[in-house]
Structure formats: C-alpha cells, structure tokens
Amino acid sequence: MKHILRLFQPNKVANIFSKNSFHLIISNQILPLFIAIFATTLIYLYDHNQPNWGTYFSTLIQVTFELSPLLICKYLSLNSTGKKRSLYWMLGFVIMPLALFITANDNVGVMNWLISNDVTLGFIAAIELLSVINTLLANKKSSSRKIQLNLDSVVFGILLVLSFMFAMFLNSSDDPLANQPVNILIDLKRNFLNILSLIGYWIQIIVLFGCLYLIYLMNHHILVKRVLSQLGVFTYLWTTILFLLICYPVLAQITLWLPINDVLAPHTTHAIQNPFSFFNMYVGALVVIISTPIVMAFKLQKDHGQLAELQQEKLHTELKWLQQQINPHFLFNTLNNLYSLCLSKSAQAPDAILQLANLLRFVVYKGSEDVVELKDEIEYLNDYLSLQQLRVANKCQFDIDISEHNIAGLLVSPLLMVNFLENAIKHGIEPSNENSFLKVSMKVENQTLQFICENSVSKHLARESNDSGIGLKNVSRRLALMYPEKHQLKYEVDASNYRVELSLELETKFNESTGNE
Fold first, then answer.
1. Domain, as residue range, for 257
2. How much is the pTM?
3. How far apart are CA 135 and CA 27, in angstroms?
4. How many whole angstroms separate alpha carbon 375 and alpha carbon 412?
C-alpha cells in the first residue's frame, strides 16, 4: 500500500507526465486496457437504452474510477522488476477483482452500483493475453531457447482462450443444451463449483474450434502459400471451393458426434442434424475469407523484413569492401613516403617509423569498425600530417587548424577525412616543382563536423577532375551509405587551388549504444 501512496506524491505525479512514462502509458502495455473502459461504457448505454451524452460521460467516469486500481497496478508493475512486478500484477488482476467479486456478492448495493461486470473482466483477460503474446513475439529473437511464436500459434492461443470463455458461458446455465436460447452471462462462482463440467464443455468446444483451425491451417500453408503464390488467383479460387466441398461434411459430422450437439437443435449445423447442410460450408468459407487477408498481411510483412535484412546485409558488406579497399591505398602511399626518407638517410626516419606504426595500429584495429571516437580519428590525422610534413616540408607550407573542442563522446566513420589529405598530397603537392600549400581546418559545432581541405594545384594539373584516384570515389560512396541526408560534400577547383568542404552530422556514444536519446 505504501508503494501505491507514493505514486501520488508530487514528484511521482510529475514523473507520470515525463517522456518515458508517457511512452509507457501509450504503449501496447497500458493503452489497450482502455478498450475495456470504453466497451463497458457503450454496452451499458446500449443495454439501458440511454442514448445521451450526459449519461455517456458520467458512465465513462465511473467505469474509469472502478478500473483505476487495475491501471495503477499495471503501471507500477511495468515500472518494477522481479518479485515486485509480479506482486503488482497479481494485486491488480487477481486479488482486487476477487475481492470486489466477493464484496459484490455479499452486498446488493455494491452490485447494483457497479457498472463493470463479467464482460469487462473478459475484455481485460483477453487484452492481457494478447499483451503477453505480443511481448513474447517482440522478444523472441533475443534468445533461441524461447518459444518461437508465429501466426499459427497466435491463432491457436486465441481460439483456446475463446473456447474456454465459451465453455464458462455454457457452464453458467442449467442444462444449456436443452434450455435454449441461453442467457448471455458468465457466472464465475458456478464455474468454480462445477469445474468438471467446465472441463467437459471446454474439451468439446476445443474440438469444435479445432475443425475451424484445420480449415485455417489448410488455407494458410497449402491454399495461400502454395496455390495462390505459385499458381495464381483463379487456381486458388477453384481449389478452395473444391476443398470446402470435400471437407465440410466430414468436419460437420465430427462436431455432430459431440455430446454438446446431441440435441434436436445443435449449435453447429444450422440447428439441424444434417452434416451435409450448406450452412457448414458457409462457416468454412467465412474462415477462409477472414484468414486469407491476415495470412497475406503477415506474409507481406515477413517478406518485407527479409528484404530489408538482405539490403542491410548488402550495405554492410559493401561498406566493409570499401574500407578494405581504402586501407591498402593508404598503406602504399605511406610506405612510399617512408621509403623516400630512408633513401635520403634522414634523422627523422625513426620518428617516422614510430608514427607509421601508430597509423597502422589504427588502421588494423579500428579501420574496419563502423564508427570510432572522433578524438581517435583526430589523433590519426595529426600523426598522418606530421608524417607527411617530414617529407614535403621543404616545398609545402602546412596550415593546420584541427580543433578538439566539443568532441567528447562523438563518433565518426573511420578513415574518411584522410582520403582528402591523401588526394591533396598525391595530386596537388607531390607532382609540383613549385612552392605549394596545404590548409586543413576542422571544428565541431552542435554535433556537426565542418572539415575543409584546400591545397595548391600545378598549372598542368588544374584541369584534373575532383575525383582523382579510387580514394575519393570510395569516400563519396561511404558517405552516401553511412550518412544518408546527413552530410554535404563540395568540391571547388580553379586554376591554382583545389578545395574540399565536408559537413557531417555526427552521432554520440549514447545514440550508438541505445538507438535513441
């Protein structure tokens, strides 16, 4: 009780309207319970013939008040774990309803005041069952040991619950087979006291519904999946009609052999003892008509999911291929640079070898990852530029402005920006016999990276296209795959300058690990 009272403290009430709590309330865990509230209200107005809005709103408020303890316990159970979660659920869906049922039976005033009834409890039970099934379906991929649910098992579960409710309905009356029509009510007390007859009715209803389930299975796995998908609509229509004409007398005869139909006016054959009645075929056709669009919708959803998974796998494979193609390109350029330093017997060669080791370590261990921390990428770029400065500083002026502000926790795809630097060195600075320059600028504002690389170009190279080499082609493709609609890439080429501008919306560690903020 103290946990329930805490819910109404000011800070707890405020939490109800927080973002997470709002999503919890409108989720498929709580919102479907309001179906019981509105359905009970509308059924009450219809039964009492009171078609006015005043009675509607007053009845709606009363039903909401009656079911509010259940909603509160449901909310508390979703916000708890372990034993507390089970305790809150038992309190809301078992203990409170039983206490109210016992109180109403002992107090006529309470029974007359209550609007929610057995039908309301039936709605709630069905909604909770569907909620459990939905949760299992959502979590079935997390473990191979869990029950693998599909459309067939869901339909079977629903029919199982409906058969039990129908058995309780029959068991709530005295000799319902002879005294027809039967009043529409479920007497819980009578069902508890006559459990054996309840089980007998339930088994018979399961057999009855099982005949309909067989028609559904045939339609799902043979008629739709095989005939309709492979042979077309016309073949499906005549095959379905032939199937119904053959099987409906057999299934009808099975249901007529049940004790529940050992009366003059049975429940299953249009109130006559005739398995050949076309009414039975109408029932089978109704099962086919209802199940076909559902089966097609599930099949379409499954095919769409498989297609999306294949596309994602294809993109992932293409990205890995692009990254593997970039790494040798960078390695060959760097080895050429180191070879030049060794030929000139430069004293800076040992430092260059150490820097090369750091660069290769990044390429081998992090270059194949989807994303790396921006600070690691910046360290990699600084090492790369330092290595290049050792070799071409005599003819190239470097102007480097790489800011490390506002980069904490930001992620970026590895080995993107180094391609622009490689292109500048290889196609702008190395071929030139004149003094050249390389300007590199990078900063981050509001999780948006702004990268600019500008270099001088020799006159005889000024007309080269801005996609020289495989490096820039690959980086453009990687940007299109990794950052769709989240990047802007511009090239500017004139008689003496080559400029690249990249704007990139970055992700954070939090986004990458949880998928949301």
1. 150-276
2. 0.45
3. 11
4. 9
